[in-house]
Amino acid sequence: MDIAKELKIAIDTGKVEIGFKTSLKAIDKKKAKLIIIASNIPEEMKSKIKAKCGSEIPIYIFPGTSWDLGSACGRPHMVSTVAIIDPGESSILKIKEG
Fold this sequence. Notes:
Layout lengths: L2 H11 L1 E4 L1 H9 L5 E5 L4 H11 L5 E4 L3 H7 L8 E6 L12
Helix pairs in contact: 2-3
């Protein structure tokens, strides 16, 4: 599966929260169905996400830096975390925990 392509489809046709703080809010409100994190985010951020997600929300480690994840989201800046709320027409929820 091309994760970057599926992420773009999810952004265009579904609902996603981009960024660490908004992703945490989506997890707290039990709205997130999948969390995607960049491979190079600081360990304390990764630990906080994992603790909040527990076993309920799958986490996928994006195989690239936060710059790569930002680019995949169509953003001209770094993106550490993306929360998938509604996948739209994408099949992004089929990926498992990285």
